[in-house]
Protein 1
Amino acid sequence: MTTPPVPPLYHLFYVPLIRHALEEDLGRAGDLTTDAVVPADALAHARLVARGPGRIAGLEVALAAFRLLDTHLHIQVEHGDGADVAAGTTLAVIDGAARPILTAERTALNILGRLSGIATATAAIVGTLSDLKTEIVCTRKTTPGLRALEKYAVRIGGGSNHRFGLDDAVLIKDNHLVVAGGLRPAVERARARIGHMVKIEVEVDTLEQLAEALTLPVDAVLLDNMSPETLRKAVAMVGGRLLTEASGGITPETVRAVAEAGVDMISLGWLTHTVKNFDVALDFQSA
Amino acid sequence: MTTPPVPPLYHLFYVPLIRHALEEDLGRAGDLTTDAVVPADALAHARLVARGPGRIAGLEVALAAFRLLDTHLHIQVEHGDGADVAAGTTLAVIDGAARPILTAERTALNILGRLSGIATATAAIVGTLSDLKTEIVCTRKTTPGLRALEKYAVRIGGGSNHRFGLDDAVLIKDNHLVVAGGLRPAVERARARIGHMVKIEVEVDTLEQLAEALTLPVDAVLLDNMSPETLRKAVAMVGGRLLTEASGGITPETVRAVAEAGVDMISLGWLTHTVKNFDVALDFQSA
Amino acid sequence: MTTPPVPPLYHLFYVPLIRHALEEDLGRAGDLTTDAVVPADALAHARLVARGPGRIAGLEVALAAFRLLDTHLHIQVEHGDGADVAAGTTLAVIDGAARPILTAERTALNILGRLSGIATATAAIVGTLSDLKTEIVCTRKTTPGLRALEKYAVRIGGGSNHRFGLDDAVLIKDNHLVVAGGLRPAVERARARIGHMVKIEVEVDTLEQLAEALTLPVDAVLLDNMSPETLRKAVAMVGGRLLTEASGGITPETVRAVAEAGVDMISLGWLTHTVKNFDVALDFQSA
Amino acid sequence: MTTPPVPPLYHLFYVPLIRHALEEDLGRAGDLTTDAVVPADALAHARLVARGPGRIAGLEVALAAFRLLDTHLHIQVEHGDGADVAAGTTLAVIDGAARPILTAERTALNILGRLSGIATATAAIVGTLSDLKTEIVCTRKTTPGLRALEKYAVRIGGGSNHRFGLDDAVLIKDNHLVVAGGLRPAVERARARIGHMVKIEVEVDTLEQLAEALTLPVDAVLLDNMSPETLRKAVAMVGGRLLTEASGGITPETVRAVAEAGVDMISLGWLTHTVKNFDVALDFQSA
Amino acid sequence: MTTPPVPPLYHLFYVPLIRHALEEDLGRAGDLTTDAVVPADALAHARLVARGPGRIAGLEVALAAFRLLDTHLHIQVEHGDGADVAAGTTLAVIDGAARPILTAERTALNILGRLSGIATATAAIVGTLSDLKTEIVCTRKTTPGLRALEKYAVRIGGGSNHRFGLDDAVLIKDNHLVVAGGLRPAVERARARIGHMVKIEVEVDTLEQLAEALTLPVDAVLLDNMSPETLRKAVAMVGGRLLTEASGGITPETVRAVAEAGVDMISLGWLTHTVKNFDVALDFQSA
Amino acid sequence: MTTPPVPPLYHLFYVPLIRHALEEDLGRAGDLTTDAVVPADALAHARLVARGPGRIAGLEVALAAFRLLDTHLHIQVEHGDGADVAAGTTLAVIDGAARPILTAERTALNILGRLSGIATATAAIVGTLSDLKTEIVCTRKTTPGLRALEKYAVRIGGGSNHRFGLDDAVLIKDNHLVVAGGLRPAVERARARIGHMVKIEVEVDTLEQLAEALTLPVDAVLLDNMSPETLRKAVAMVGGRLLTEASGGITPETVRAVAEAGVDMISLGWLTHTVKNFDVALDFQSA
């Protein structure tokens, strides 16, 4: 079984990111311990093993840490991105020189643990809504430098992505309205200045604001901090003319009620800003 | 009150990091919403406000996001790094052009939420050991690209730092021993190859291994996954000749018992790998 | 009159780009001629002067070349981005040390000539459609490294922007259909995988294809290489339900007829891929 | 037929440039359309085809866009740099995974269209002087970031290169004279400060200035904005002792008369600042 | 015989450094001479030959210059890092295209000459102390950008490394004491703020200072500018409780006497700040 | 007295180089010692003092290390680049916060010591030829990353610069002739391919080769490893028609005899490849 193909962005974006992470860990002098303690010709057989159950994300990205240090390692993926695994499952097997395997271990585990943690949490919440049409989406509350990867992990978890940044959609929030003089002038200014291929969403806090939004050329409304009951009314008012998004303080406990209100999307900042690390380890044997 | 001085690394390291985070958020086309909706000459008065209680870390780093977009903003720090604040506390006040404040908001909050989250969790655990000499230390289980900042947040939380990377101390772990042929040859190889100014620590899993380690020229022992009872015996065996570090599966519930066993350090991976975001918001008014 | 404010992206993106352009011109040894021939304390009074009529774009970006070499130059903008100027108009006046003015001259003129050339050509074509609702949009046929600036110049010229890149909207073209098995499966795959905030456009070459597209959940249709007559029929078929874009071989001579067919957008690759440089010069006097 | 060898600078300079162009097009999220619409295992057979007649330049550089995304593509060059092709000529054939071919298409065409446009225009003008010794040279009026490539395209077109930047030759222009106190002091300052291996050229606007230049230790004279008649007198005055260069407002219509005046070089800014894109397309079939 | 394995940092750190050195030498236009004079298909057989006796260091790093320009060169290492060679010894044989060999020559020789110069000087001084336990260590007086490589060359020469930078150990020098209020408060501040795994060294200029240092929790003392006689007393006072380092004005003539005083380390700034280049040449034949 | 103006390249090139050097020294965690031991509000008065006699070069570049860490330091230059100073001379006085002064010290001294060492050695050799027209020139045997600075130091020392890299002049050496089929075809190929503004030099080892070179269109001859007597004959043969350069094994002892042979240039690799560090120190007082 050969290493599966990696996506186009792999070499362009993710490999540089992992290279930077390795440089951060190796500093100026490299892996003092391994270089001193492990003979250059020592061989090893290592397994990346899940320590708990979860959804895997970022395995190929993590494996780049090993590949960057030694292009001759033999790496076989057993359960890659998107797999739901039980504790004890072997994700990949690595054979070759012992030194690069040991040196790359922590860098690989750090990225794999974080991304699989996001995918696992996303999959859990998405699973509770499997009979509904509502999608779970992530926000821009991501780790500096890791946004594209964290949004990828959300997709692997079955979630969907909201904006990747400030430049790919318009979202007019309450703070914008403070200085824009109200919803209508804000939307009109946006419509006049923004390209045809960009969607416009506005945040509304009340049903009155929603009523006004429905008279404006917007594509979506963010219904902020509304109760399920209010959301239900809002969805009825919208009547399918716009996309509806619920946001604000939604937890695993309340998400089902929010979804049942009929919104198209529920956005959850905690999917990416409060990540429980997925526990993965490197089981290592002399070979 | 003027902006307080920032550390030497601020301009060298942290500003580039924040610049990169802004670039990640702004993409090719910048903040479509703000540029379209907010007049160029609109002024604002904004406050960074804590939404919960905690220990602040990274405020100056976060403020760099605003400063990078507009050097003319007036920024006044009210409660900076190290402050313990209640919910509702204003951390900083920002006055000036509305556009850069809105554009930088999310980037600033992302870094401030993460670092203050680490400091808050660290302060909580350190607080439970205030009558003991044991120090809480973090590990290399950090976010790619953010290690130095996350370790700084741990220090702000009252914790201490273990290795910054693979190159500033030797830590001989179980996987190294697998290919090094045992504790003694591993330590001897390390001692022969490593500079005088570098400390050597070895991981031991049993008291037998500890007994062997005590015959070797090491500076510290990592006592891995030992019960408080075993740790107490280990500390007694060491008798102050070496530094002792407890590690492995230690939780807020068990940390006090581990510390009472008398170890010098307790290392906790979750301080940095499983961070609860600290909730901060930007309260924004037209000015 | 002071230097006007510059946009947020100025320091983040455009200054590095100009820095890179200066480095490209200065090489390893710098401006041999100026450093040898011009005394360090020589002062100059210089004017950036339009040599022909046109729409100015990129003046602040071009001025960064001077500012990067000498922060003490006094620069006064007379006619900035968006101004329509006659030949002989002074755009900016620069006073200060002679050396940096001479060294930055070519770098500044290269960027200003290119961006103003794009704005001028765009303004000319947009002017011919001023009584119609059709917008002129640019494409991804831009110069490597200059896309955001060239799209900015199109906006300054009164045009609008289509996609900034492959990641901010979906455009299913004929080549995609070759491997996707037809329009319907292509659109369905896209709809299933793409976030809610991203628009989907499909290219159609015939009215039959258009009829099929109208049954699918798309936001826009690109009507490729159609005659004005066919476009008129297409616009009638769409009936305002989708955005319509005409594309393919449209010239200044044919653009009016295409617009009169009633499409929402006309995309023109030549706005950015075949630029007539706008002639600007630096008039230089000893001071 | 195998891919021909690429020049030494290919990997050092041109590949990073193309990588940057891909990053500019791919943004944070990559090619949304292709990744959604085209199956990962779809194969394609694609041909880069000239849509008009011209001189090819930059084919290998353009092909780097494909190679960077997929090292397994099979690429066969049919007509590479320097070839004069008719409309419809296949330049290269690409076989392999459909996704990377589609994703790299625009980036590759943008660079190939620009460089072949320069080569084609240069070849046309050079062709009109084939019986004369005068060389066509380009200037520093190039696109920021692309100077070396654009100068390469000029060479492929049969032209020659003037200075690559401010650091590889001295060119004393009118603006320098304004602050240097005249031709003689300027040249003397230059000669005293510049290394032996660097040539010195001075710009002269009149035959009187030329007479003075002929008394000074310079290697070349730039005869600015002179009529063919005046140029003829200038060439006679120089008598082969210096290189002569004609510059300023020379068009395809006037270039032959200028060349017949006997100058060694004619420099044309428009070769690189006003480029007509060469039309190339990717013909794409499922395979 | 195949090319020996290269260290983990090779691809991460040293290849980028050599790439940068090549870029510095190639400028914008590349190797004008070779590209013009040498046919693209010319083959060569070249040998890197030592012109004097010495200890080789940096051979693999130097060879990266060739490999970066042409991955098809066949390179065979005869005497690699650590070898003691006589004048005339062939270090490596390179076969393949003539152009990349000629273009990379100077870049490769510059780095190999410098690093082997450091190794040779280190080996000479270390050789004079072979019967003593004292180690020769280098300092932070290194060339900007080359610190890790120069410290590597010292190790290849048989020396040891002191701090790699300001961040991997504490060294309290006289200038620190000026503002810290004396040795005791300085050490106490350091001990309170620095992680457990970091060693602390203090500089002392007199035996009185040494006596105070011996009462403080430090790991090492730097005995600055002391005579061998004073050093002997200092070593006796320390009695093995701390590491001892002699520093300050020690030359090849005095180093033996200093070592015989019994110190653990002698630090020599001139190992890296005043390097005699090791003479290596490329013997080149047509093939 | 204010800080004197710095050259245009200062901010573009030298500041990034010093920033990189600081990063190399500061690592991930910064200056552990200073940050721990020196209070944040401690002030200092420091002087950069020459410890020996010599010619200063690189002072402004070195001072960038201090400025990068603290823009509020007050720095007064007493003896800048080009000054000949005696031991004990104060070069610059720095007042302000103690921490940044201590942290930048070593980085500043490393660059100042190296560049002043080059200038001092160059000035010494140039001084011995003050009554002759021969110029001392440096080579491409420079430190990776520092070429432009080292060539600048040579100029400050009164020397002149040969090529800055492989791209700014043609130098046909013996190895090129091996594969080019002799001097004439090599020169003819070069002349045909190289721009008019680039000089061509050929290396000759014998007077016979020189005779051939004199029949070819070259600008300079490198007379390699010839005795003063042979050089004298060579200079006579050339008769001022070409530039003459002596090279190969020339030492301070032999340089006068070589110069008296009448060559235009003498190139010395050791000016930059074997540098004796100039001793500078930071005298530091509490303020």
Note: Chain B has two domains: 11-116+276-286, 127-273.
Protein 2
Amino acid sequence: MNTLDVKTLNVGIIGYGYWGPNLTRNFFEIPMSELVAISDLKGDRLQRARTLYPDVVTTPDYTELFDMDLDAVVISTPPATHYPLAKECLEHGLHVLVEKPLTLNSEHAEELINLAASKGLTLMVGHTFEYNSAVMALKNYINNGELGDIYYLDAARLNLGLFQKDSNVLWDLAPHDISILLYLLGEKPISVSAQGMQSIFEGIYDVAYMNLVFPNRVSAYIHVSWLDPCKVRRVTVVGSKKMIVYNDMEAEQKLKIYDKGVDMPTYTNGGFSEFLCSYRSGDILIPKIQLVEPLRQECQHFLDSIVNHEPPCSDGDDGLSVIKILEAAQRSMANGSTHEVIQW
Amino acid sequence: MNTLDVKTLNVGIIGYGYWGPNLTRNFFEIPMSELVAISDLKGDRLQRARTLYPDVVTTPDYTELFDMDLDAVVISTPPATHYPLAKECLEHGLHVLVEKPLTLNSEHAEELINLAASKGLTLMVGHTFEYNSAVMALKNYINNGELGDIYYLDAARLNLGLFQKDSNVLWDLAPHDISILLYLLGEKPISVSAQGMQSIFEGIYDVAYMNLVFPNRVSAYIHVSWLDPCKVRRVTVVGSKKMIVYNDMEAEQKLKIYDKGVDMPTYTNGGFSEFLCSYRSGDILIPKIQLVEPLRQECQHFLDSIVNHEPPCSDGDDGLSVIKILEAAQRSMANGSTHEVIQW
Amino acid sequence: MNTLDVKTLNVGIIGYGYWGPNLTRNFFEIPMSELVAISDLKGDRLQRARTLYPDVVTTPDYTELFDMDLDAVVISTPPATHYPLAKECLEHGLHVLVEKPLTLNSEHAEELINLAASKGLTLMVGHTFEYNSAVMALKNYINNGELGDIYYLDAARLNLGLFQKDSNVLWDLAPHDISILLYLLGEKPISVSAQGMQSIFEGIYDVAYMNLVFPNRVSAYIHVSWLDPCKVRRVTVVGSKKMIVYNDMEAEQKLKIYDKGVDMPTYTNGGFSEFLCSYRSGDILIPKIQLVEPLRQECQHFLDSIVNHEPPCSDGDDGLSVIKILEAAQRSMANGSTHEVIQW
Amino acid sequence: MNTLDVKTLNVGIIGYGYWGPNLTRNFFEIPMSELVAISDLKGDRLQRARTLYPDVVTTPDYTELFDMDLDAVVISTPPATHYPLAKECLEHGLHVLVEKPLTLNSEHAEELINLAASKGLTLMVGHTFEYNSAVMALKNYINNGELGDIYYLDAARLNLGLFQKDSNVLWDLAPHDISILLYLLGEKPISVSAQGMQSIFEGIYDVAYMNLVFPNRVSAYIHVSWLDPCKVRRVTVVGSKKMIVYNDMEAEQKLKIYDKGVDMPTYTNGGFSEFLCSYRSGDILIPKIQLVEPLRQECQHFLDSIVNHEPPCSDGDDGLSVIKILEAAQRSMANGSTHEVIQW
């Protein structure tokens, strides 16, 4: 396709609160999109949007966007509104990029997926880390066998968090890590268990630990917290040949590849040795990762998916998978950390 | 008591493998003890001991120690031998310091406790971290209310580990963290759950996650691993006023006190605010901790306990508590991470 | 002054290359200024400016700005053009904020200072670090005696640098550290010496070490490099009571206050002790610094200085001082690191 | 040579203060040496030595060592006594390992070198870092061309230091870095300049900066300080192809190899481009360095040199070179940081 022929897509934003401004800036700057309108219920946010984008329409009434000849809408509103807003946008024939989590339950997610499919529209969820260069490089190392067999993954996302009504630390933070795990492994977990704490407010989980069991005995652990003094964003992948730590808090050195492992004895002399095996500890490599804003790559991918009529990497099914895992984890937390098998 | 009158105690060592040399060096150097004999089954170890301590008796037969007019014996042999060796030593009227874990099951531990009590002998287990200046300072901060109400603790002890037959990562590493938790909180957990992985060898857990539920809804999490690329030894304590991270990998700055927390709103105006509360992030203090070798303090404490006829901090009961928690965790791992209530 | 009465100042930008976009964004966002025009010789830069600020005039000809009823101009062009551009702007009655270094020699700087004074205009140079919250806090600690007597300061600013024609590492990086030192100490150095290396290109210094001697025997050392594998931006201040490290590479913990020092003996018993004194090593405090974009504070300060008819913190004299020190350092490097006394 | 035929060398220690115990422990443990006697003027030190080595002779009178049929003597006394003690030991036909600095002036060092040569004795100085595995690996990287042409080296050795009478920070700390530089480059500097501060005591330099100019325009900078809040031990080597940082404060990851550099333009299109060149930033490699106690390797090397009649790596000439550089630096500091050409 000749780049001169690339259609410019008209984009509207619904929700200009915490994350919306970042999405807005990217769609404003990407040549392939035309930022047409921004909608938010709060006047001060619209005022700020007008300062930055004086030529863009701002309105407290998102339904006005339906009369603006838009191609696509980006929804970054509170999670509870994702479903009705996305549904209405799809019904008006608009492609939709919605922030994570896609919806608050899997029925709603399935409804949106079916609606988008029936209308031939693109439905994408904002799992940013699937567009992160370091995560993409990590997936490459896994796929090309550099790590050997994968034993397990351990993810942590900790910090002091903003407590929100109608949410909890699981739904707020774990979507990131779940989407990373699904993306890295290319598989869905068989079962999930979780336990959580309600330290500050009765009824609001602020610390949670999850376990996901994948096929081939691969396990993954996720620790999320709104109550930790240190900001941590880390995924460790342990394989039979090598181990990788992805530390998103590092400015540049985000991946560290450890030539470490446990070597099994090549023979056992009849009996049983005192130490079953020895460990190997070799070089550490910190590969150069080209730094690109992940959100820029996500926004560009949304536009490309629309134009090329191809499902995006983080499509509705991906969003649904994350929600089904969150639902199972929530059930597990409520039931004393039972193992919840997920029906796919 | 006048220091001139302090009795010098005759000490023997059983087990001169990985940890024994450290215990030996300390009892050799402490003025209050006289290192008399070292026993180990392996000749090369005894050879090395003779090089360092040419005047100390070395023997492959530990029973020879019973004829040497010893006051106390230090046992640092493989865990499976702790019980029979400690029992035999106590029966010979010797005070006993035994490495962690005290025994491999709680019945044996109770038997040793009763035996020591009936004979008026000191039974102490080598929970080193209870004699660590940083852990002691951390307990002080908790006790004097500096942290406010304790919400939870999170401990991690990770590294490439030496796989051993008849052991697993839980029994190898978790005793440290469990003894720290019991010491810090001054309480015993109500229930325990755990899950583990057998990545390398069928039947040997090499990664484990534990949850301990304490009274007053305090929870503690422990992550131990023999399969991690990074050496981690960290305990995070989260309180309502402040949070502390104890990082044992730091050479000097082992404690960091964060003036961080979540402040609840003082009033709610009828409705319900969007954000339930705000977080507070103030100064960080790294207190000067006087560095003393914890093992030196532990060995001295053993000798003092004997002379003063006082139960040591890490006495048999403490060792038993750790074992009952390990047993419950082991049951939980075997049963699919059930919540195991512990009978105290 | 009632904020309702605050005059909005019309601002133009000359130079939209590396740093200009940051200045532009701030003047665009600050309510007290109206961004009117952007000038740059390169079309692609103007194109990018038009994308972000469609309502702002863009032009390759900066002289057009003189017909736009502007109040102030911001100059962020290559250093060699600072003098003629600033001069022309002042002659047209415009207040001027010019990037560092103010000019390439002190005669030109003096001429600009005199010109601004004679016309009653504000002349300010963009020494950003004087508007950095961490540097301001550091100055407070020095001024209120927390550190005791200042012994010396050591500054390092290292990285792989972009080699530029007609510049060198001294003129590129050292203005930051020199302006920080002048600001922190509130004094001007008596003499300067420097040595440099021309590793890559004959005639272009890419590594330099400077020494500044201040009154009261206070010394300061500056190490700047375009050829270092690690990005370093650090100032260490050593006082008789405490020591502070300002590490600008830290995201949040930019200041560390060490209760460390050397205590002199209170008496000497006739002879002379083997060790003259002992060192003291106490707590470390990491104070909470409120993070504000320094450039925002700088831009706001420029506007405030104009409206209030008050000399800015980094006024022309400040810019001149930095240049006289750079000139002396350059002479010293050329003459084999002679000590160059500066006439103030 | 058959290891069964290796002669065991009888070794005596003179000086059991700060560093002596480490030397003593190594010679006690190395099979090839027999630790015979320890001498020190202070009774409490001898008492401690007797506790650790009950079978070794201890005496306050070092001359007693001359009647003990020793092969070699290790001198770790205050620097001012190095010359007379080493001289006396050599005159008694003993091989000598003396702590750095070899002597307090070059005449004395030359005298010892000549004396040892005339008697066919080994004279070695304790430049420990020449026996450090990380430094040895670093030298390998330089020698095999991995770094390309060496541009410069920058070394820092900082901490709170023990102030000593009759010494200063230069003579206390810089011998380490000078010996490292000489070892790494395999060349001697043409000239030296230095500047220092006397912050605490008039007449005692406690902070110093040195510059060493080597052949082929290679420069080296050394920063030593007794007055810094952070413990720093770092050498950076910058080459045309790669750069290496040796950080001795890291427990394991002591070397980091940066594939970074500045690439010169392959052509210039008639004029002169704005940016002369671009920088390249690739992977970082942390090679596995086998950890061996450097002092153990040093002590073994001393014994090997004696037995093999080969000059040690850090022989008298090496010690003399360090002293001549220190003398020149001292002169430079006294004369206002003149460039002192060294006659070799």
Note: Chain B has eight helices and 15 strands.
